[in-house]
Amino acid sequence: MSEPIRVPEIFGIDVFNEATMKERLEPAVFVAWKQCVSEAKPLEMPIANAIAFAMKEWALERGATHFTHWFQPMTGVTAEKHDSFLSPVGDGKVIMDFSGKELVRGEPDASSFPSGGIRATFEARGYTAWDPTSFAFVKDGSLYIPTCFFSYTGEALDKKTPLLRSMEEVSREAVRILRLFGDTETIKVTASVGPEQEYFLIPRDLYDQREDLRLTGRTLFGAPAPKGQELEEHYFGTIRTRVSHYMKVLDEQLWRLGILSKTKHNEVAPCQHEMAPIYSDANSACDSNQLVMEIMKKCAAANNLVCLLHEKPFAGVNGSGKHNNWSLGTDTGKNLFSPGSTPRQNAQFLVFLAAFIKGVDEYQDFLRCTVASAGNDHRLGANEAPPAIISVFLGDELDGVVRSIIDGTDYQDPGKSTMRIGVDVLPSIPKDTTDRNRTSPLAFTGNKFEFRMLGSSQSITGPNIALNTIMAEELQYFADRLEGSKDFHGDLQKLIYEALSEHQRVIFNGNGYDESWVREAERRGLSNYRSTAECMPQYVSQKNIDLVTKHGIYNETEFRARYEIHLESYCKIVNIEARTSIDMLHKQILPAVSAYAGSVCATIAAKEAAGVSCRAEKALAAQLSENTDRLYDALTALEDVMRALPEPAKEQAMYFRTVVIPAMDEARKYADTLETITDKEYWPFPTYSDMLFY
Ligand code: ADP
Ligand code: MG
User: Fold this and answer.
1) Cα–Cα distance measured from residue 457 to residue 160, given in angstroms and rounded to the nearest whole number
2) Could you tell me if the CB of 531 is within 6 A of ligand 1?
3) Is 395 left (phi over 0), alpha (psi -120 to 50) or beta?
4) Residue 468 binned pLDDT confidence (cut-offs 50, 70, 90)
5) What pTM value is reported for the model?
6) Does ligand 1 lie within 6 Å of residue 443's CB atom?
7) Å from CA of 391 to ligand 1 middle
C-alpha cells in the first residue's frame, strides 16, 4: 500500500498563494498587494522588491533554483524561459538573488512567437509583466510567475491580457445593473469558469510506433476495431488499475499546485477519460487548465502511457472536448445566474438571462469562431458533440418562463394574471433539471451556462473572452437604457420582453443531433459554419471589430493578428497531416501491402507447382492488388493537390478543407481496407484494436 495522500496538507503547497503571502509578507506589503489586485493599482517598486524577496526565499525552500516568467503566447500553449537565481558576489561564490524588477518585468527573446504581423522584424522584442492576480508557483525546480506578454508598442501578444481586459469590462457593466436593483455592496463581479477536460490514454510503446500520433496527435489511418463504443460499457465504468494509478498521481500533482481537481471518470470512448475541477475565476481557471493539460501529458509519460488531447485521435469513436461552465458572481458571494426567490432577485436574474440570450444571438459567429480548429472540425456537427450551430438550451421550466414573457401569457398558475417582471415572483426553477440536454452547445444548467463546443486541446481563453465581452456589451445596453428611466418597472419589463422576443430564435430545447434541427436553424436564420475555413472569415467582421474595440479588449491590429494566426495555424496543421499521410503511405503502408501480396503470390506459385488448389490465395492477391493500385492513385492525387497550394491564408484554408482533406480521406479509405485484409505480421504499426483495447 502506498502512503495515503493527506489532501488538506498538500493542497496548494507549491503555490505562493494568499495565505502564504499573508504569512510571509510584512502587513503593509500584503495590504499593498491586495489593493493592487482588487483595485488594479500599480505595484510600487519597494513593494515589488519585498514580494520578490519573500517569494524567492519561499521558492528556495521548495527546492527551486530558477525562476521563469510564464506566459501564454498566441500558439495556445504556454511558454517559459528559465533564469537561475544565482548572482556572483566576487570571491568565486554566488548568492541566490531575485529583484522586484525581475519579478515585475521580463524581456524574453520573442522573435519566434507568432505575432500575426504586429511586430516588424526590426522590433521583435516582447515584454512580460507579472499578473499579480495569479499566484506564482514552484514546479520542476523553478519558480513560475504568471505574466502577460506584449510588444514594444504595447500590443497584447498573448491570451491572458485580453482575458483580463474582458473580465474588467463585464465586471463594470454588471455592477451598473446591480446598482439599479439596489445592490450597493458589490464592488466587483467575477466571471467564473469550470472547464471539464476530456482526454485519451494509450500505452506509450504503441504510440511510439505510430508516426501519425507522434507528429499530428491523431491517427491518420486505421480501420475500425471489431468493437467500438457500442456496448457503452466504458462510460463511468470501472477504472482499470493502470489508469487509476495515473489519475491518483495526476490529482496529487494538481492539488499541490492548488488546482481544484474534483471529478474523474471514464468517458464514452474506450480509453477516454475526464477530469473536472471546481470552478474558479476565469483567469485562474485558464491558467490552471493550461497546467492541467501539461501535467496530464507529463504524468502519462511517467506511467508509460501517452495522454492524447487531440479532438479526434481515433475515427469512429467519440472525440474529446471541453465543457466550459461559465457564470458571473459578485464579491459578496452571489451567483448572478441563479434565479432568486423574490420579485426583485428574479427581475435581476431575467436581465442577465435576457442579456445573455441577446448577446449569444447577435454574436453567434464570434462564439463559433472561438472554438474553430482543425481538430474540432472532426467533432462539431458529427453527432458526438454539439452541431456547429450556436443555440441556447434553457430547459422546460425556464423556457416556460421565457415563453410566457414573450407571449404575455400566464405561466402555470391560471389564477394569476400576466407575470409582471420585478413585481411578481417567478415560478421556482429547479437547479438540476433532469432533462440534461447533452446536444446543446450552450446549456443553462441551473446557475451557469455550459459552453460545450470547445475542443479538448484548445486554450479556454478565447471562448471566455468572447462570453465576457458579449455579456459586457449587452449589460451596458441594458444599463444605458435603464439608468435614466422614469418608469423603472415598465421599462425593465419592456426591455426584457424586447430582448427575448427579438432573439428567441437562438433558443432551442430539442435534440441538436437531429437532422431536422439543421433545417429548422436555417429557417430561423442561424449560422451554420461547418468548418474552420468557412467560419473564420466571420471573425473579423465589422460587427466583431466594433465590439472588441469598443470594449478595449483588442485594438483592431491585435484582433486581426489573432485572425491571421488562427488561420495560419489551421493551414499548418492540415499541411503536416497531409505530409505525414504521404510519408506513411510511401514508407510504411505500400511496402507492407506489397510484401504481403508478394508472400501470397509465392504461396500461389508453390501451390500451383504442387498441383493443389489456390483459389483463396488468388482471390486475396487480386483484392490486395486492386486496392493497392487504387491506393497508389489516391496517393498520387494527394501529392498533386499538395503541389498546388494557393498562397493567401484564407484561400489556402479553404483549399485544405475542400481539396486536400478529401484527397487524404480517399487515400485513407483504401489504406484502411487493405489493413483489414493484410496479415497482422506485415502491418507496420499498431491497429485501433491494439491501441483501444490493450
Ligand atoms: P452539473 O451537475 O450541472 O454538471 P456540477 O456541479 O457537476 O454541475 O458542475 C460541473 C462543472 O461546472 C464543474 O466543473 C463545476 O465546478 C462547474 N461550476 C459549478 N458552478 C459554477 C459556476 N458558478 N461558475 C462556473 N462553473 C461552475
Ligand atoms: Mg462532460
Assistant:
1) 17
2) no
3) left
4) very high
5) 0.95
6) no
7) 20
